[in-house]
């Protein structure tokens, strides 16, 4: 690429006003209800009540809008998680707050009912290399990272109880490396449980599988 060509690709500063919010909200409704591929720009602008030029004043392309939608959905889940975490009194409660936040997300009012994880649904439609897939991956990694954090706190509290002369839990932790390995293994187990439950819940259209997954997680955590 020539220097002239490179200079011509300077990023365009996008305006951020009320129209952007309306477009993003409309896109979120349509992408989740109908799918990314099935939802055209005309559908989104009509539902948002804006001109097509307004959309392109706020987003570079449909791909850019999809990525913004996925980022917003991630933030929506984080907000639900933070609310649950605020009520957590113990590391055990904090682990279960992750499951509760997923159940809360599933329980939101959707036009055609709950269809599963909106992030995974969108990722399944996107081609390899699409930035939206990276957003979804980061979300899932962050969720597993939260489980790691809370499980480490839980297992450290168990170890501290043992150090004070109380009966140590089964499989007593004897070192940092063993602790980290156990934490990673359990966090991955819980992440798989969570993802499997939300897929089945989406197929069945209700939160039964999410409640069952939480109960399983509770039992697993209590056995540590």
Explain what you see.
This protein is an all-alpha fold and 224 residues long. The chain is built from ten helices and no strands. Helix 5 packs across helix 6 (91-106), helix 6 packs antiparallel against helix 10 (208-222) and helix 9 (176-204) runs antiparallel to helix 10 (208-222).
Q: What is the mean pLDDT?
A: 88
Total E-strand runs: 0
Give the distance, in angstroms, between the N- and C-terminal Cα atoms.
Answer: 57 Å
Q: How big a fraction of the residues is strand?
A: under 5%
Rg, please? 21 Å
Element pattern in H and E = HHHHHHHHHH
Count of alpha and pi helical runs: 10
Helix content: over 70%
**Residue windows where pLDDT falls under 50 for at least 5 positions:** 1-13, 168-174
Largest sheet: none
* Oligomeric assembly: single chain
Rough outline: elongated
SSE topology:
Elements (H helix, E strand, L loop, with lengths): L2 H5 L10 H17 L6 H8 L3 H7 L3 H25 L4 H16 L11 H8 L5 H33 L12 H29 L3 H15 L2
Structure, briefly:
It contains ten helices and no strands.
Key phrases:
224 residues, mainly alpha, single chain, elongated, disordered N terminus, 73% helix
């Amino acid at each position: 690429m020539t220097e002239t060509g490179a200079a011509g690709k300077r990023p365009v500063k996008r305006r951020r006003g009320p129209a952007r919010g309306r477009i993003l909200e409309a896109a979120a409704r349509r992408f989740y209800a109908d799918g990314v591929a099935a939802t055209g720009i005309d559908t989104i602008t009509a539902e948002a009540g804006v001109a097509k030029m307004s959309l392109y004043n706020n987003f570079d392309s449909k791909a850019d809008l999809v990525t913004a939608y996925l980022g917003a959905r991630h933030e929506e889940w984080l907000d639900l998680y933070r609310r649950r975490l605020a009520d957590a009194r113990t590391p055990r409660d904090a682990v279960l707050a992750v499951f509760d936040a997923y159940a809360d997300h599933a329980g939101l009012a959707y036009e055609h009912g709950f269809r599963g994880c909106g992030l995974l649904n969108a990722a399944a439609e996107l081609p390899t290399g699409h930035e939206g897939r990276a957003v979804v991956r980061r979300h899932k990694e962050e969720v597993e990272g939260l489980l790691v954090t809370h499980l480490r706190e839980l297992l450290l509290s168990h170890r501290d109880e043992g150090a004070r002369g109380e009966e140590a839990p089964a499989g007593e932790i004897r070192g940092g490396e063993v602790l980290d390995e156990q934490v990673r293994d359990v966090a991955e187990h819980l992440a798989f449980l969570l993802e499997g439950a939300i897929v089945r819940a989406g197929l069945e259209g209700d939160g039964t599988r999410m409640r069952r997954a939480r109960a399983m997680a509770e039992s697993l955590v209590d056995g540590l």
